[in-house]
Amino acid sequence: MSVVFINVLLRHPPSTRRFGACCVPVAQEEVVEVEVAPEAEAQVEAEPEVEPEPEPEPEPEEVHEEEDAYEEEDDEGDQDEEKPKFKPAAPKIPDGEKVDFDDIQKKRQNKDLYELQSLIDAHFESRKKEEEELLGLKDRIEKRRAERAEQQRIRSEKDKERQARREAERQKREEADVHRKMEEDAKKKNVLSSMGSGYSSHLQKIEGKRGKKQTEREKKKKIMAERCKPLEVDDDFSDADLGDKAKELWEWLHDLETIKYDHCERLKRQRYEVISLRNRIDELQKQ
């Protein structure tokens, strides 16, 4: 048995890289042993030997060039790793922080709508409160008017009663004065009839002179009696009666002040009219 050794040089593509300090070989020779049968060996011996064509040898220069290129690239990679260059990159927006302009506009519209609704609600609440206050004010005004009308009615009734009482008292006083005068006249006549005629004439003259003065005095007394009335307060008056009496006197004083004010205003107006008429007369006379 003969063994034919066929040396085959197999070249692998340059695909090796450096990893640290290790280096993988680029090409490797493989030896393949092939066993040939004896019959085949005899045929081979019988056949004329044919010189095999020389196989093309691998180009060692290209392999070395490729290895040098890879070594240069590895050296450049090592230099890049040793000195990294700063390359600014655009900031990336996360998916959760993406800006949605439609959503922003919708939120803004909702906010404006909420503020507008709040303003409308506040306006209606204030208007409702004002209407309630206005209704309450109207009710108070009506109530006050009714109270004033009732007070005016009570005051007018009291005034009528007071005037009627004053009139009755005045009539009583006049009747008493007339009765007293009649009695005095009757007494005087009786005295004069008992005395002489000369003395009676003298007395008549004196009474005539005094009559005028007494008449003026009587008028003054009468007016003062009408105006300055007694209080008519008894000891058995209670606090309520005294309060009513004080209120009645206050109302009477208020009426007097009102009358006084009306008279003063009337007097001022009359004086103004007199002065204006006098000035007009003077102007007409100058013309």
Automatic annotation (TrEMBL):
- The answer, when asked if Cell membrane is one of the entry's keywords, is no
**Looking at the record's lineage, which domain of life comes first?**
Eukaryota
UniProt GO BP: muscle contraction; regulation of muscle contraction; sarcomere organization
Compositionally biased region (Acidic residues)? 36-81
Region annotated Disordered sits at 36-224
Key words, A-Z: Acetylation, Muscle protein, Phosphoprotein
The GO terms this record gives for MF are: tropomyosin binding; troponin C binding; troponin I binding
Q: Does the keyword Magnesium apply?
A: no
Name the job this protein performs.
Answer: Troponin T is the tropomyosin-binding subunit of troponin, the thin filament regulatory complex which confers calcium-sensitivity to striated muscle actomyosin ATPase activity.
Q: In which family does this protein belong, per the annotation? A: Belongs to the troponin T family.
The molecule here is called: Troponin T
Organism expressing this protein natively: Champsocephalus gunnari
